[in-house]
Amino acid sequence: MSNVIEWVLELDVQAGQADNVGPLLDDMVAATKADEPGALHYEYYANADQSKITVLERYADNAAAMAHLGNFGEKFADRFLAAFAPTRFTVFGPAKDDLRAALTGFGAVHMDYHKGFARG
Questions:
Q1: Model's pTM, two decimal places?
Q2: How many independent structural domains does the chain possess?
Q3: Are 104 and 14 in contact (CB under 8 A)?
Q4: Helix, strand, or coil here: 55?
Q5: CATH number reported for the structural domain that contains residue 13 in this entry
């Protein structure tokens, strides 16, 4: 079992916000890459008409995930919540109580490790 925290966040683009999505995601990706060494994987995917977005995120551990949420809240939460409506949020790994509490407002469902392995 590892300390890695991963999540999949599914979003609908809010009506009238399509033009704001690209610049917002550019800013978020750049900031996360520059400021968060514990962010191991941070990618956004869109359907064909770009009305639905799926985010794949992986953090080295609970502290790295919490650092990301702190930066998100400080820099991007208002713009993000204006642009997107979360539809599904699944968190994988050993999330501690602080992370679970921080994600409650997003309707996160937590999945704890059961069995398996990860390669390098």
A1: 0.94
A2: 1
A3: no
A4: strand
A5: 3.30.70.100
